[in-house]
Amino acid sequence: MTISRRHFISGIGSLTLLGSPLFNARAASMKKKNFVVIMLRGGMDGLTAIQPNDSKMAQVRPDILVKGVKKLTADFNIHPRLKAFYECWQEGKASVVHATSIPYTMRSHFDGQNLMQSGGHTPYTEKTGWLGRGIEVSALGGLAISLPMPLLLRGKNTLDNFFPTWMSLPNDGDLRVIESSYSKGSALAEVMNRVRSRPVSMMKRGGDNQAHELAVVAAQELRREDGPRVAVFDIGGFDTHAAQGGEDGAHGECLADFDKVLNALRNGLGNQFDQTLIVTLTEFGRKVEQNGGYGTEHGYGTAILMAGGLVKSSQIYADWPGLATKNLFERQDLNATIDARSVYCSAMSTCFDVDFKTMKDRAFFGDPLTDLSDRLFKI
Amino acid sequence: MKLDFFRKIGFGLAPDENVPSDPIAWAVRQVETPAKLTWPGHIPSEQELLDHRAEFVYQDRRILREKFKNNRNAYDDAKTQLRYKTGERYFPSLETVIRHHAAVKGKAPVFERLWHFWCNHFAISEKDMLDRWNTGGYQRETIRPNLCGSFTDLVKKVTVSWTMIHHLDNTESVGPNSKWGKNRRKKGKPATVNENHARELLELHTVSPAAGYTQQDVINLAYIMAGWENRWSKKREECNPVQFNDKKHEPGTHKVMGKGYKQRGISSETKLFDVVEDLCAHPCTRRFISWKLVRHFVTDEPTDAMIAPLIKAWEETDGDLPSVYKALIKVVYEHTGSEQKFLNPETWLLQCIRISGTNWPPSPEVMAYDFKSKPSQPARQPSIIMRELGHNLLAPSQPNGWPDTEAEWLSPELLIRRLAASSKFANDPKYSVFVDYHKVAEKNFDALDDVNYFLHKAKNVDFYSNPKRMGQALFSSKWMLKV
Question: Best of B411, B427, B428, B482 to disrupt the A interface by mutation (most A CBs within 10 Å)?
Answer without folding.
Answer: B411
